[in-house]
Amino acid sequence: MTYFDLQLFSEEFTIVTQTRPVVLCEAFCQQLYTSTTTTLVTLHTNKQHIIIILFHWGCLSATMPEGPDVEIEGEGSEGQQGLHRCDNPWKPNAQHGQSEVYRRMLGILNRVTQQSLGIFLEQARELPLSDPTHLPHILSLLLEKSQDEPMFAPIYARLCRDLAASAGIQRDLTTACEAHFMENYEQLLHYNNIFEGPISSQLLHEEILVRKRFIGHLKFMSELHKVGVVPSDQVAAMAETLLAHGDDRSFEGLCRLLSFTGLSLTRTHEELVERSCNYLETCFANGTLNPRLRFLTQDTLDLRANGWRLREGNRGHHPSGRNVRG
Predict the structure, then answer these.
(1) What are 129-140's pLDDT values in tens digits?
(2) Number of H helices, E strands in the chain
(3) pTM of the shown model
(4) Which residues, in sequence order, are CB contacts of 283 under 8 Å at separation 6+?
(5) Domain identity same for 238 and 212
C-alpha cells in the first residue's frame, strides 16, 4: 500500500450533529487506534456536509517515504562555511538595565493603578533610585513606559513627583525629559525627508508609531507640569520649538501640547499661547491643512474658546473602581 493508494475502512461511521462538537465514543477511538487503514467519518449538519478523513499515524509511518540522509558537517569542514563568532558578544548585566532594581521598578509600573498608588510608592521608595548605576536606566524606563501608555500618564506623573521629592532626582528627571523630547522630535522630523520619496506600508507604520510615541511624551510632560515637576518655562520652550517648524508633524505636536497645557501656559506665558493660536487660525484659514489636521485645529481652537476645559459631552468617562491592569 502506497501513500497515495490508501484503502478506506470497510465500515463507514456516520455521526449526526446539530450545533455541538462531535464527541467520539471510547470504542470508536479504540478502533481508530488499532486500525491500520484510513477511517472515513461523515458529519451531517443542517447547513453543510463535511467529510473528514482521519489518517492513522501507524499506517502513514509505514507507507511514507523516508527522506534523504543529511550529514551535518562541523565547523571548518570542507565545503561548509563555519559560523562567524563575535570577539565581544553582548551579555545582559546591570549596565543594560537587567538589574534587580530595574526589574522591580518595571513590575511596579506594570501594576500600579490609581487605587494602589500608595502601596507601590512605598515599594519604589525602598529601591536605590539615586544610585548612579541604576538612575539612567530607571529614568529611561519611566520615559518609555509613559509615552507608550499615555492613558496612565497621570499616575506615572504622580509617582515621579513623590519619588523625585524623596530620592532627590527631580533635576535628573527634568533633564532626561528635555533630552528625550529632543531625541524623539529629531526622529520625527527625519520622516519629513523620507516621505519625499516612495512610501511603503512598513515605513508608514513606523512613522505612525513614532508620532504616537512623541504625542505620548508630550502628554507625560504636561502631566509632570501639572504636578509641579516640570517648570512652565520648559513646557514653553517645547512650544517654541514646535512653533518654529512649519511641517505637519510639528503642527500636530503644537496642537496636542496646547490642548494638554493650554490652561496653565495661559497663566504664565499668555503671549506665547496667543501667538500659537493665531498661527493655528492662519493655517486653518489658508486651507492648506489636510482634513485630519483641520479637525485637530478646530478642536484646539474650540477648547481655547471654552477656557481650555473640555465640554461635558467630550469628557472621557473612566471606569469606576479599580483600573484594569491586574
Answers:
(1) 889 899 999 999
(2) 12, 3
(3) 0.68
(4) 251, 289, 297
(5) no
